[in-house]
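Annex B. Sample input.
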Amino acid sequence: MTIDVGTLLADRYRLEAQIGSGGMSTVYRAFDTVLERTVAIKLMHRNLAEHSEQLERFGREARAVARLNHPHIVQVIDAGEDEDTPFIVFEHVKGETLKERVQRAGRLPVTEAVAYAIEIARALGAAHERNIVHRDVKPQNVLINEEGVAKVTDFGIARTLEEHGLTADGRVLGTTDYVSPEQAMGHDVDGQSDIYSLGIVLYEMLVGDIPFHGENQIAVAMKHVREELPDVQRLRPSIGTALAAVVDRATAKALDVRYTSTDELVADLEDVLTIEAGRRGETTGEATAVFRSLPQAQRSRANLRLGRRTVVGVALLAVVAALVVVGFLATGDNTRRGTGQAPRTPVAQGEQAIKLAQDAASDYDPPPGDQKEHPEETFRVLDADPNSSWDTEGYSGGTFGAKQGVGIYLDVGAGDRTVAATKLDLTTSTPGWGATVLAAADGSGPPATRDDPGWVEVGTLDTATEGDDVVPLSTGGKRYRYYLLWITKLPPATTGRAKVSISAMNLQRAATR
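Annex B, continued. Sample output.
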């Protein structure tokens, strides 16, 4: 049952428009005639107000949220009853829900998604400090105001940890699209449950969709209990490994693996925002404001990235890699890479790294192969993360079967952009394999088969060593667009099926003056 627009509640609040409705209440935009301001009012449905249990839960929301004063939590202003209908008065947030934003925009810019996750986590942290668990974290309960700031609302099923819940044993409250495994099973929950739900919200912001679908809410809930989330990097390859690791840990089903506090989560998210801002060379939207809230030392690291995108990722991921970058910068080479990755091997005097776009790497498995050799992983040879890699498929018997080999190639650019590369640098964790390096001029694409005369052999790697390898290239000064690492010899198999794993590939050319 709804109340007519124009009704004056408690001789003070005039209802202006209905702006939302849920299972327990209806939300109105209203005008506070005393303080002359717009507010939001949540009115409990009259048929539920007759039940003492529901009435107590509704009142508990007002008491719980009124104790919270945080810039990312919608503030409770007042509470009362009008003709036996309880209501809560909130600050009015003009804007849209995070769910509406995702539905409107699809997946969000990476830095913006991380920034919203930080703001939501900070809000939940303030609640958890008061021993208040939200228990219904979802993008529908996050409002984005006109300035782009996120504010968490609707603690309608939150409860303090000191008091006993009013729900029957085993009853699941919350939206199962975001429900934690322990909540789905009807177990007691704490702040780690909110962290799981926030991890699902972050996943949705990055991917543009929730991880699980089912015939009904129970089926979805059981998937949260039993199934692993789809790989966020596979669905959005531009996401860095550090961010993917945060999503994985936040949504871990095992509580001893999941973040134990929002402080831990926020710390990692802040590091990720620094990394992602540096990789992209900028922040946009609310990410800019959140970025400015980070400690100065952290912002300075990202500012270095904004000016020197060649050192993104490596500088934060490994000290050794950082030292390599220092040596690289000392050469005076300021060539930018789309991924911000610096070569793993030092750039020799008189040479410089070749600029590569973030999506410059592609798999190569021509007929009689199926033309797919883990294409979803190829970005990993350019993501500046030594812990991520592109792997071939596993092959038994030490051979490729009917195939001559498989490979991965680098596209140095579109149109008439071609280069005469002098070296191919690569990093592998699977020593013992061999390959040739082939090059092809610009065209509609790389030659369709290995035997196509368009491919010219320009280098050889007899036996790869673990770690870094440098393959000299002999192009005779001729410029090419595609450089293919054609793997012809597999490494010794350790488990019965052999594969090649490559974590980095870089091209060098003669320096220009």
